Prior knowledge:
By secondary structure, the protein is an alpha/beta fold. It is built from 4 helices and 5 strands, in the order E-H-E-H-E-H-E-H-E. Strands 1-5-4-2-3 form a 5-stranded parallel beta sheet, covered by helices on one side. Helix 2 (40-45) links the parallel strand 2 (33-36) and strand 3.
Amino acid sequence: xxxxxxxxxxxxxxxxxxxxxxxxxxxxxxxxxxxxxxxxxxxxxxxxxxxxxxxxxxxxxxxxxxxxxxxxxxxxxxxxxxxxxxxxxxxxxxxxxxxxxxxxxxxxxxxxxxx
Length: 115
């Protein structure tokens, strides 16, 4: 007799509304990691304040913290890339991953890198 055990992993990731992200980035005491997965040139031309730049295919193997419960927010060139990265982080064990979607939807302040 053969017994097969299937394991179901529930992936927790959610879409973060622009208003929510704007509120979170305006908080001084809120702990989170914000990851911009666009190309370096796009990031340098403008990004959400305090965002780390980890361009898209490299970010699929990027683990920003050892704390699997850290709040992580992801945005990129489009919603699908951000969703894919959020899903991958969820599969690897991160519990609090959300994605904003496309940077062009951002209505808040923008930082630019000095040239």
